[in-house]
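Researcher: I'd like a structural prediction for the single chain below. Treat it as a standalone chain; there are no partners to consider.
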Amino acid sequence: MMVVAVGLAALAGYLLQKKQKSLTQADAPTTIATRGTPIPVLLGLRRIGPVFGWAGDRVIRQEKVSGAKGGLFGPTPKQDVYYEAGWHQLCVGPAWALHLIRQHGKVIWKGPITRDTHPSGSLIDVGTEGKFRIFWGERTQALNTFLGSASRNPVVGITSRWPYLCSVMWEEKRLGNSPSWPLLTYDLEVKPESSEALLPSTPAYFPPALTLSLTPYDIDSVVNGAEWNGSNNTIAGQFIVEGDQTQFFPGTSWIRLTGNTLADQDFQVKFSVAFQNQVSAGPPAVFETLTRVFVEGGLAGADANGTITPYISVEDDGYNGAHLIAELIFGVRPVGLERPTNDWDLTSLDELGELLEDEDLRCSIISRGQSVRDTLGQLLQDLGVFMPCDPITGLIKFTAIRPPLVVRTIDEDNLDHPAPEILNMVGETHADRLVFTFPDRLNAFNDMPVQIDDDGNASYGENHSAEEVSIASTCNYGTASKIAERRSQEMLTHASTLTDLLSGRDARSLSPGDVVTVPEFVEQCRVIESTPRAMSGQVGLNLIPDYYGAIASAFQPPPPNTGGGLLPAELDLAVEIVELPEHFDPNLGQAIIVPRIRAHAQVSRAMFYLSRDNISYTQIDSTTQHQTGGDLVDALAADGPMYVNQGPQIDVLGPDFDLVNSIMPLSDADWRLGRVICIIGNEILFPRDVQLIIGTTYRLIDVFRARFDTDRSSHLVGADVLLFENTAILVLQDVLLQPDVDLYVKVPIQASGGSISLAAATPHSTRLEGKGARPIKPRNLYLTLPFPMVPAWVAGGGFTLRWHYASTASPKTGAGQQPAGTVIPSPSAVQGDFRVELQNGATIIEFFPGTVTTQAITNGNLVAGFGSEPSSLTARVFNRDGGLESLPRELSLIRI
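Model: Treating it as a single chain, here is the predicted structure.
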């Protein structure tokens, strides 16, 4: 059995101990695997859910969170946050690479890391999510001393290598405000370890299709040296580029070198790491961030000229199925059976590898407790391979079931029974359509359908009466569609079998998989069983009609369900530049967010480039996060109510509306504190829910307008509406962000079918107000005299202005610019002072009330300032602090 038992005897007492019924939720232990739970056997790359082997060392910490539940804006109260250690057992080792870790479907860590770059026992920092050690599962891997420590609670007390067990040891994992572990999955890769020595004609690995990025990186310097070995950072062969570019040069990726002393060529990246290089000793000392890009095989003869450009992977890599067969049969235990090769025709297996390479079948397979027979049977069935014993050599050979190159004829003279018995193989047919499903890597390894009609054409689709067939040996759509087409022919032929056909000695050389013609039977036949009979000298044959003898299908693999094969890159449907209100973090300084709506689901990454002049652009960051939204259907007025029960309608654009639709309606706390942010122009709104009207038209329900420091504004039909969860947005900061400057933003993107270059990206622009740097503009400017709240004064008289000081700690009553639901009893002290100006025509007079929030204006002030008493004027109040002045709050006044 391909199983490694989790419930080791030394842990059995702990695993089987009874749980106390009186424990509180905070004290209740994490549920772990029961004794005997199988560990998966993996060949290739798949997403794996862990077997939970141990959990303990739980602690509770008080942490500040952004909003009551981690909001982007609003207050930061403290709450209990749970942390715990845990042992996640992933697969039978040794594994080769860890690509991704997802938490409830969201990526919390991205590699890849490999056995070469991070040997067993290496500690990986996952930022706020915690830290873990990776153990790849070698026989002699590093000891897991963490489990063996006597300080563990509960105590395991065993320090072991746990040979052949690939696992992740979370020394600390942030669980959040619940003691339950989140759903974690791991994108893990195991490569065949010994098959290439047995099958020399083909490599085991099919590399992914690559497209060259349109963003080259200038080479700052190079180091000519040997291949990086984990410790020779400063002398190993490497290119060095400016900035932290590690996300663009992950291990196992490829780069293109151009413009160097070396000829233009491709290199595979071994590993990349950012470091700080001291430029000046100072004082103060000056440092720059650089990235070392180590390459496979080292580097020799390179200079510091030219560029390196990363390739973008289509993620369609896989393994040759013949190598997976070899690994299951001949590989060392516990992955393989470790069979001796003497009884096997390895030449036929090597030829099978060449055939599968020509057919471009990219395979991977995972076994969760099945026997080797079952796993190997799934693989052979998907690949269309027989394993008969060759009657000539006596060796077990590998025969691919494909259109025959040679068809032998059994003469009537050689038949002892000219009319063999014909039996129906499949009985009554219940479906004339098949739906093959496979775990699609481009759709998060979810089962995706490939539908086969009786005419042999394949497509994505659904049919409730169709027969469903699972494809276990691939996660690649192109391979799955070819397997589905081949298997459909044998399953839809409704074939009969010819049994007990007795032939003469000439048939002794036939073996299962051979194709023959038989008298009185119109179709070609495939041998499925050949039994020599020693006493009579006859050969008993069982045959089936050869479906490959029929007219070949014109099937061409259709595009996958991700939106259409490798879709070309397209510019975003909407992009908005939004200055981040100071309420997000008073200490953050000036920052922006750039919500966007991507064109289709295969747009995987967006890069953010900033410029002051729309000529010279600098890349600041990149993201794989997406937002949603659409076009405004109903206009919004600037003088409308602050709360709108039936909000405006929008026509949804792009593929990602479910990002917000799936979490709505919101609770009162989430709604009032801005769990979902809506941005229209410069106004921030908080919707509680969305309601489908028809087709792609939705209505925003229960909308708070003018949140934080934004005002109600007029929005015309067709305006862009951006929607996103408050944690699903990248915050950008840079020296180019300054008050009162023009900012240009370009967002080139990468997609499965290519990329949009910086030159081809559309520039988006805004005039920066300077939020986070300049003071927040005052709120609620009004008159207290001569008539409260009436914007007018009596001829010959004066008036008194009043306003409110605005800050991130202002009273939060739910009105105005603040989140609703939290009340602060008293206003904060004024920072800086105020300036008041009155304007009539081109004439402006000023007043400086200091830190008080009121200003009395006499009739004498008006006459002295304007030469005579005006009939109308505009009053403005500014907050000044740190040499910067807020935008004004305005009020129009008339004389009566």
